[in-house]
Write a structure and sequence with these properties.
Length: 447
């Protein structure tokens, strides 16, 4: 374990060497925003991405880590043309039943040196492969502790567990959203941000703020202002203040990297375009995000995917259109950074067919490609999620404390529910074909 002082202090001496201006030819290439485009050098930055929340755990020099596997997974992703990974860069240990352990931090300032080393290692290996990372800094949901755990740190240990029959929906999101109005909880979260964003990677010698491997810092995974319009309304001032205040903090610490919210889009804004626009209009927020979950949102029935897929497809198309329109209104790029679909029959095993899942991926990819070819605002996508060689360890597909198989499906979900396995040949082919097509889409823009 390491304290905040040792986490931050190690960067001071090296930071002094970065004060001198670099020659233009040696300047690192950071992704930046120009209007509704993301740019890398003189060209639009369009990408095929994946979610790999567990990368720091896999990279950790600890019992639960496996660096050799992480290297193999990165090689497999690179071979498919995946160049962008969305990674969890926080996890708060606390009382929630389904949160991953170990976490990056507890209530105090003793932070997990092994997980931080795992993140260092992952970023170093990604840099060797020309990949970019989006690092999210907490979670609205329970599976990594998140905002509810921060609240428990400052309110005497009180909490609400997700999916607790004693607290039916939407009690969990309503309770979690109180985080934005809790100055002590937000202060602890900001303390984590100051430490992480100011960190220096001992493997590369680069301060995180100077590492071009990082594309963006993300405020949270799927922050919502509440569980319903009625519960969200009184919290909106605090929600907006949290977004802008945190984004300003990150920008003050790191002027090189983009900042995004991690929002699901309209679904994460209690289906209010006004709330989504207001949350993303701040100048410190560089691009928009949307997540699309047809099964979670009851657009498709896992027991009758063939009979309900067409209806889900129509709703997905509409959701994509709505968010492209919002991106044009706000004048910022859009990333479809989470999209998932069940395997045929709703099973979790690698042997289950992925016919309809592949069709869904193709629908998302067609939208990204069309946007690239027509000057639209969608710049990339991150499928949820990469399982790679990970396999469920138990017949009930449930994650149990101490498991180290690490799949893209988080601990609160059935292992194998949405993730892409290394044996999913047809899905991997869809991803690779899209990467090839996207690489040649659109015209380069002069510097």
């Amino acid at each position: 374990m390491v304290t905040r002082r040792s986490l931050v202090g190690g960067s001071a001496a090296f930071a002094a060497t970065l004060a001198l201006p670099l020659p233009a030819a040696a300047a690192p290439a950071f992704v930046r925003r120009e209007g509704t485009r993301l740019m890398l050098g003189a060209r639009p930055y369009r990408f095929v991405g994946a979610n790999m929340w567990y990368a720091a755990w896999l990279g950790a020099p600890a019992r639960y880590g496996d660096r050799a596997r992480l290297i193999r997974e990165l090689d497999a992703l690179a071979a498919m043309g995946v160049t962008n990974l969305r990674i969890l860069a926080s996890a708060e240990e606390g009382p929630l039943k389904n949160s991953v352990r170990p976490g990056f931090r507890t209530k105090g300032q003793n932070w997990n040196d092994s997980l931080l080393a795992g993140l260092d290692f992952c970023l170093a290996e990604m840099g060797k492969r020309g990949m970019k990372a989006v690092l999210y800094l907490t979670n609205f949901w329970e599976w990594s502790g998140g905002m509810m755990t921060y609240l428990s740190y400052v309110n005497g240990g009180k909490f609400v567990d997700a999916n607790d029959p004693a607290h039916p929906w939407p009690e969990f999101p309503d309770a979690t959203a109180q985080f934005y109005a809790s100055k002590p909880a937000v202060a602890l979260y900001h303390d984590w941000i100051r430490g992480l964003v100011s960190r220096t990677n001992p493997i590369t010698g680069l301060a995180y703020r100077d590492d071009p491997t990082i594309m963006a810092w993300q405020l949270a995974n799927e922050p919502r202002p509440g569980g319903s319009p009625a519960s969200a309304a009184p919290l909106l001032p605090a929600y907006y203040a949290w977004i802008r205040g945190t984004a300003k903090l990150v920008k003050a610490l790191d002027s090189n990297h983009l900042v995004s919210t991690g929002s699901e889009g309209l679904m994460g804004s209690v289906q209010s375009a006004e709330i989504f626009r207001a949350a993303h209009a701040f100048p410190e927020i560089d691009y928009l995000t949307a997540h699309i979950w047809p099964l979670n949102w009851s657009w498709v029935d896992a027991k009758d995917i063939p009979g309900t897929h067409a209806g889900a497809t129509a709703k997905v198309a509409d959701y994509l259109d709505q968010h492209q329109a919002l991106a044009r209104q706000i004048g910022k790029p859009l990333v479809i950074e989470e999209f998932g679909y069940p395997r045929d029959g709703g099973g979790y095993d690698p042997q289950a067919s992925t016919r309809f899942k592949d069709l869904y991926y193709q629908q998302i990819y067609d939208a990204v490609l069309t946007s690239a070819r027509t000057g639209g605002p969608i710049m990339g996508s991150n499928f949820w999620a990469w399982n790679g060689s990970g396999r469920a360890l138990h017949g009930d597909h449930r994650f149990r404390p101490g498991d180290t198989a690490w799949l893209g499906d988080p601990p609160h979900e059935p292992q194998g529910w949405y993730g892409v396995f290394d044996s999913d040949a047809s899905t991997r082919a869809v991803i690779k074909a899209h990467a090839s097509a996207l690489a040649t889409a659109g015209e380069p823009i002069a510097a």
